[in-house]
Amino acid sequence: MADVSHSRGDLAGHPDVSEMQARYERVLGGRDVALVDGPVFLVGLFCAVSPWIVHYTNSQPALATHNLIMGIAIGLLALGFTVMPARMYGLSGAMCAMGVWMIIAPWIVGSSPDMGVILTNVVIGGLTFLLGLVCVGVAAKNRHRVT
After folding, report:
1. In the prediction, which pLDDT does 37 show?
2. In three state form, how does the secondary structure of 80-122 look?
3. How far apart are CA 93 and CA 130, in angstroms?
4. How far is Cα 29 from Cα 7, in angstroms, rounded to an integer?
5. Cβ neighbours of residue 29 under 8 Å, at least 6 residues apart?
6. Which residue in 134, 33, 137, 47 sits closest to 82, CA to CA?
7. What would the pLDDT profile of 7-39 be if each residue is shown by its tens digit?
8. pLDDT at 106 over 60
9. Do residues 22 and 39 lie in contact, with contact meaning Cβ atoms separated by under 8 Å?
10. How does DSSP classify residue 114?
11. For the chain, give me the number of helices (H) and strands (E)?
């Protein structure tokens, strides 16, 4: 009969511990910000539907179309971060640029936007920029760890 009295929580003495650690790193490679993918997708989703939530589709049709397209683009970035994290985190800087663009877009794309439109775009842009910074930081950390 096998001796099962030893501690199961400690794998330090396991003969394959180095191989298990290497496999764990390969499987997780670049997934340090798995919790950021969801919020990025939600921000993109809100950006896409914000013209209908804030009710400016009639007063700002160009901005409504702009936010729909930008929301879809942010959502696609989030899906890319989930599906191919090692390749997509290089686009985190683009997400920061998209956030800055969302902040200034009401004055460039829109025509005399009201406070609701401005506030909505500033919040969406700020969140996109901050989440992009988180992704940039993790990508830089992963690149530094690999080299």
Report:
1. 86
2. HHHHCHHHHHHHHHHHHHHHHHHHHHHHHCCCCCCHHHHHHHH
3. 11
4. 29
5. 85, 86, 142
6. 33
7. 555 666 767 777 777 766 665 554 555 678 899
8. yes
9. no
10. -
11. 6, 0
Retrieve residue 70's tokens: 């930008």
Q: Which residue has the tokens 């007063």?
A: 59
pLDDT digits (tens, 9 = 90+) for 47-104: 999 999 999 999 999 999 999 999 999 999 999 888 887 778 778 899 999 999 999 9
Structure tokens at 71: 């929301």
> What is the DSSP code string of 38-83?
HHHHHHHHHHHHHHHHTT-TTT-HHHHHHHHHHHHHHHHHHHHHHH
Q: What is the dihedral of CA 28, 32, 33, 35, to 10 degrees?
A: 70
pTM recorded for the entire structure? 0.76
Question: What residue has token string 């406070």?
Answer: 115
